[in-house]
Write a structure and sequence with these properties.
About 30% of the residues lie in helices and about 35% in strands. By secondary structure, it is an alpha+beta fold.
Length: about 140
């Protein structure tokens, strides 16, 4: 059997439980066809770079599988037919990486940072104090 990684995006109007149910459903499809899900991750609702089927956001899910090619083809076929699944990506890999995916590591790092984004602590701006900009030196007189 070969190793695969799958990412799919489900519609944004699903609940978290429904999106996680899709992960289990497609994992069952793999098992029924002789494969197995090594690991699965629910990445949550994320904003997409562009609209897909009039949706700006989607539920992202990630699966690592060890399955024969026909099981993967059947799962992909069912994903593409499913109304709630907007996009599917499957990649064959040589080995699965240990630990959580980069997306989960990023989310954990954001949680530790307190969801301040990439800019970090803005210092004086949080208090509304614009601070002293210092001496700006001699300037030419204004022309009115």
């Amino acid at each position: 059997m070969a190793l695969y990684e799958h990412v799919f995006i489900a519609r944004q109007d699903l609940s978290n439980a429904q999106a996680e149910g899709l992960i289990e459903h497609f994992g069952t499809v793999l098992k029924d066809n002789g494969g197995k899900v090594v690991e699965s991750e629910y990445w949550g609702v994320k904003t997409m770079a562009y609209k897909i089927n009039k949706n700006r956001k989607g539920h992202y899910a990630f699966l690592k599988s060890d399955a024969p090619a026909n099981a993967v083809q059947e799962m992909e076929r069912l994903m593409r037919l499913h109304d709630d699944v907007m996009r599917v990506l499957t990649i064959k890999v040589d080995k699965h990486e240990d630990g959580p995916s980069v997306q989960l590591q990023k989310r954990d790092r954001d949680d530790e940072r307190g969801d301040r984004g990439d800019r970090g602590d803005r210092g004086d701006r949080d208090r509304g104090d614009r601070g002293d900009r210092g001496d700006r030196g001699d300037r030419r007189p204004r022309r009115d």
